[in-house]
């Protein structure tokens, strides 16, 4: 069949337009961007993952599932997430958390944000890695009251968990996988870029910041750095006699009686109650404690002394802390 010049020109135009559309579609649509596994806040160092537990989407997802799972407790009723509530910066609102069969713990559950940066764990610093820390609540009588081998047996009966473990670590949910998956997830719980970080402060908050950083209060001596803690062990004069011996449990040194790891102040406005035993109910109670100079104790830090802050100064300091 003969094709006229006009028809040939029309066909050529269609081909050119189609080719342009193809090039444009290819350039603009491309493969979808891959979401990062975690986001490091501005001013924070990159978290360090162990060589045998490098992060992947599969490992983080498995860890989150186990963090939320009650299968880790003997009665199948308590999960990590039961005492570390996301809406409260992964801390608890109870004075001390409640474990299986209503058993009360002995210490207040701290926030899990930025635990990737902690050099050691537990209030006395006796656990060197997050992987090892995972086993503590599982075995603790007042928490999960279980055995990690029994946890393994229970999880092995869950096909979805077994498949997830194989994808993440190439092996079934044994103690290696359980501890590493939860630790991998917890290392991604990073939080920064607060209004204080962005210098987006009201006049009251700015006054509070000046007080916080001043030699008059010496707050930064213990709560310095990007995570607002030195991770040191201190006695802050909370009481004259302590039911909990603190770091002494680990070292058996009398110099460590009632000394506890300094907590981070990030999200301190939502992590009440406070102190290792949850004995101070509000942030103002905490500030009043430090303003008074605390109780006498042989191990009390020399930094803890009466501050003489006025009510307005306490208001300003509280305002700044809530901006963290």
Keyword list:
324 residues, mainly alpha, Cytochrome Bc1 Complex, Chain D, domain 2, 2 domains, two-stranded antiparallel sheet, 12 helices, 36% helix, globular
Secondary-structure topology with pairs:
Blueprint: H1 5-29, H2 57-68, H3 80-83, H4 130-133, H5 135-139, H6 148-156, H7 159-169, H8 175-186, H9 203-212, E1 233-234, H10 248-251, E2 260-261, H11 283-292, H12 311-322
Antiparallel strand pairs: 1-2
Helix pairs in contact: 2-7, 2-8, 9-12, 11-12
What's the arrangement of strands in the largest beta sheet?
1-2
Q: How far apart, in Å, are the first and last alpha carbons? A: 79 Å
Radius of gyration: 27 Å
Give the second-level CATH assignment, the architecture of the largest domain.
Orthogonal Bundle
Tally of helical segments: 12
| Relative strand content | under 5%
Class from helix and strand fractions: mainly alpha
Number of strand segments: 2
Characterise this structure:
The longest helix has 25 residues. This protein has a two-stranded antiparallel sheet. The protein folds into two domains: 136 residues, Cytochrome c-like domain (Cytochrome Bc1 Complex, Chain D, domain 2); 120 residues, Cytochrome c-like domain (Cytochrome Bc1 Complex, Chain D, domain 2), CATH 1.10.760.10. The radius of gyration is 27 Å and the shape is globular. It has twelve helices and two strands; from the N terminus they run αααααααααβαβαα.
């Amino acid at each position: 069949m003969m094709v006229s010049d006009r028809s040939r020109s029309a066909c050529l135009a269609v081909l050119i337009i189609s080719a342009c559309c193809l090039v444009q579609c290819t350039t603009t649509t491309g493969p979808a961007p891959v979401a990062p596994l975690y986001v490091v806040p501005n001013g924070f160092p990159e978290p360090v993952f162990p060589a045998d537990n490098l992060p992947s989407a599969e490992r983080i997802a498995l860890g989150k599932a186990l963090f939320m799972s009650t299968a880790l407790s003997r009665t199948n009723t308590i999960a990590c997430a039961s005492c570390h509530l996301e809406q409260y910066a992964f801390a608890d609102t109870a004075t001390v958390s409640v474990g299986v069969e209503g058993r009360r713990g002995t210490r207040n559950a701290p926030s899990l944000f930025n635990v990737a940066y902690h050099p050691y764990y537990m209030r006395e610093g006796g656990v060197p890695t997050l992987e090892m820390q995972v086993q503590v609540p599982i075995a603790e009588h007042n928490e999960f009251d279980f055995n990690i081998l029994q946890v393994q047996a229970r999880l092995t009966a869950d096909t979805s968990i077994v498949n997830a473990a194989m994808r993440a670590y190439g092996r079934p949910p044994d103690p290696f996988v359980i501890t590493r998956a939860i630790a991998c997830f917890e290392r991604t719980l990073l939080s920064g870029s607060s209004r204080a970080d962005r210098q987006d402060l009201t006049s009251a908050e700015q006054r509070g910041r000046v007080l916080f950083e001043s030699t008059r209060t010496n707050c930064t001596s213990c709560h310095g750095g990007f995570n607002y803690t030195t991770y040191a062990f201190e006695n802050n004069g909370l009481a004259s006699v302590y039911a909990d011996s603190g770091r002494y449990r680990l070292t058996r040194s009398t110099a460590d009686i009632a000394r506890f790891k300094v907590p981070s102040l990030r999200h301190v406005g939502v992590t009440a109650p406070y102190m290792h035993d949850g004995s101070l109910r509000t942030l103002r109670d905490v500030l009043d404690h430090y303003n008074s100079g605390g109780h006498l104790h042989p191990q009390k830090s020399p930094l803890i002394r009466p501050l003489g802050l006025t009510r307005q100064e306490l208001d300003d300091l509280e305002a700044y802390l809530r901006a963290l």
